[in-house]
């Protein structure tokens, strides 16, 4: 489901003089869908659907928006289920920040299209898990593929009619063994609908052993590379930005995509601050995630809670600085010294291996 804005950040929004490029705000952990691969669905009985309060957002987060270039309203849920969602967008835009979000489009109708344009939202990403209704709706129970595609096209049409460059329209595609063959077609469809960028992400957070079979990188096949290359060609010929995580994983990479406290900082719906979306899941869910055939059993690293501690204080605390410094040292390693160890909590995360 998640999340991935780094493709867009890489293209359109460099951190420049700001320390952290993006504040990811989980405005809701509620969702109307029951995606087969989502921890929300797998852990249905233990999941707590929470809505971030307006007070927390306005009083505790908004005063610190200038620490970030972009406010990205999305976490482990559908952001538009927060009844104050558009007020949150408006407040972040009023603070001069770039604003983006990812949506399943179930609550993204004509009114929301107008709001996204009127408020000059910078990035709207739509989540796809297939290039056909049969595949998408198989993996995403409760989804409506036709309506989703219609929302992308309607936003593109509204932009064109208004001569607008914003919002950038993105498609975020979850690569699963059962839908990888549709990746090139999904890129063609996205371009036809009017998307300007396409990112293909792995199922990298595996909440049950059976789902390991769905992770492309755990059972690579010979034609996987060719499919991704074909998708890249489709994007190039349509003139849209394309980024896909590699279909096979290698060893540890120096800096994961989240690059905590450089690229992103994540605030959960209850104000808890964590380095990345992987650490934003509740403890009982994180400890039952699967990693290479076994429960990963790690505890997420929590940096503080924005409801009772100002964000700058949280960013300056020891735990935050340690993870920040760790990735910074790894990024700047030199051949005459050993590469610094990754944070222990990251070793059971596929993101550290390029997923
Ligand atoms: S490698 Fe670590 S910091 Fe990066 S996404 Fe995974 S848990 Fe988060």
From TrEMBL:
<keyword id="KW-0479">Metal-binding</keyword>
<dbReference type="Pfam" id="PF04055">
    <property type="entry name" value="Radical_SAM"/>
</dbReference>
<dbReference type="InterPro" id="IPR058240">
    <property type="entry name" value="rSAM_sf"/>
</dbReference>
<feature type="domain" description="4Fe4S-binding SPASM">
    <location>
        <begin position="263"/>
        <end position="350"/>
    </location>
</feature>
<feature type="domain" description="Radical SAM core">
    <location>
        <begin position="26"/>
        <end position="147"/>
    </location>
</feature>
<keyword id="KW-0004">4Fe-4S</keyword>
<protein>
    <submittedName>
        <fullName>Radical SAM protein</fullName>
    </submittedName>
</protein>
<dbReference type="Pfam" id="PF13186">
    <property type="entry name" value="SPASM"/>
</dbReference>
<dbReference type="InterPro" id="IPR013785">
    <property type="entry name" value="Aldolase_TIM"/>
</dbReference>
<keyword id="KW-0411">Iron-sulfur</keyword>
<dbReference type="InterPro" id="IPR034391">
    <property type="entry name" value="AdoMet-like_SPASM_containing"/>
</dbReference>
<dbReference type="InterPro" id="IPR050377">
    <property type="entry name" value="Radical_SAM_PqqE_MftC-like"/>
</dbReference>
<keyword id="KW-0949">S-adenosyl-L-methionine</keyword>
<keyword id="KW-0408">Iron</keyword>
<dbReference type="InterPro" id="IPR023885">
    <property type="entry name" value="4Fe4S-binding_SPASM_dom"/>
</dbReference>
<dbReference type="InterPro" id="IPR007197">
    <property type="entry name" value="rSAM"/>
</dbReference>
